[in-house]
Amino acid sequence: MSLLAHSAEDPADGRTHLLHNGTAHHYRRTVTEAVTRIGAKIAGTTRPFTGVTVDGLTPTVSGIDLDAPLHDTAAALDELEDVYLRDAVYFHHPRYLAHLNCPVVIPALVGEAVLAAVNSSLDTWDQSAGGTLIERRLIDWTAGRIGLGERADGIFTSGGSQSNLQAMLLARDEACRRALTGGELPDDARPSDVLPRLRILTSACSHFSIHKAATLLGLGADAVITVPCDGQKRMRTTDLAAELARCRREGLIPVAVVATAGTTDFGSIDPLPEIAGLCAGYGAWMHVDAAYGCGLLVSRRRELLNGIEHADSVTVDYHKSFFQPVSSSAVLVRDRTTLRHVTYHADYLNPRRMVEQRIPNQVDKSLQTTRRFDALKLWLTLRIMGAPALGALFDEVIDRAAGAWKLLADDPRFEVVVEPRLSTLVFRYVPSTDLDPDLSDRVNLHAREALFASGDAIVAGTTVDGRHYLKFTLLNPETTLEDIATVLDLITEHAGSFLAARPRPTLSAR
After folding, report:
1. Model pLDDT for residues 120-159, shown as the tens digit of each residue
2. Whole-prediction pTM value?
3. Residue (of 113, 40, 52, 127) closest to 87 by Cα position
4. Phi, psi (5° rounding) for residue 457?
């Protein structure tokens, strides 16, 4: 009996859904149907969100009986419209202005389709072959753009948090190695004797994953020393120098100094050359978290990253400012030998003899074992579009942020915290200077929530000096100043409605 005939008799037979040479036609037809629907959905999306609530959508999803399959792709896609597609948050829409989520370039989506179908695992050569070489070539290309030198290496990761974790792990183990071999400790000292003395220094505006990494690595969140920022939300190097000097006086060991090239809230870039000089003077590992700012590597503004070439490790998130689908990230190191701290050998996977045979196994330098071929997306993007085209997209959103800052600075309804270096703007609705600060907090919180509930636009929120602020994160070149002006008007409308509806204080009788 042929496979097609068997499929017609028993559509529940799992073999009919496996992708192989006998079902390639079914794969083409099914994926084409799905892509056609998604294309139509993207083309017809008129706002970034429907405003659906958790309580409104949960019954729809919970009501699906996962033990009663539909046995029909069209029916499943119809159902998917109800449980996901209709109410998804669409980052491609020009009035999605919230988090560091970018619209994606089509060449990367081609790569996503290819890598999902072939399904290579990038842990060992015998599971990936050319995929290993493509990933390694992209790491070399990125390291070259950064300027890390000929001994550089790295690995693709799931995102900036994992990249930061791995960088802190390498820095920790290097610090322990130096402490145990430097002659300052007894010969029988162990890493556990060193750990309580280790400290990580990072700015008050850095990503929370640094504190999480310290906890995961057994150092504890208290091992992180927070360095104050200046008025432009950049690490204050005078305070960094003071903290490094204090560590030396108190017998503490600076594991790493984490400089941020593109903070999540403000897009600020720490003074990298000065930080590099301090790290060299104190023998501290310099890590640059460029998850957001890495797009500058292909931008006409590359000079904003001057000093990054001195880093011992760098985090990059291609799925932010390189316009790649999640996930597409990497951690890079100046000295490839430091990656030995994550190298473990298993006879069933990457036995030691493979190193002698010069067989490249990426698991030798990764925290993960099974790992997607995410590098393919960036590879096809560079081969089809080219790096200058990517850089031009990032430059466009930075230009747009500069225009938006002027809109806000000239608008008496708002106050804006700092002029952006990249593409984020933190601001606050302040209708009058004598408005009670607590009331102003409630107004801004309400405006954001009401705007999200309307689905007309999405903005983010944060706190500055304990007060609630709103935030634009611009990563869509299709977002215009007219879009931004419209969103500001919508915020004003929601804020005004809140103020108008609040109870008025009553005058007490005399």
Report:
1. 999 999 999 999 999 999 999 999 999 999 999 999 999 9
2. 0.94
3. 52
4. -165, 160
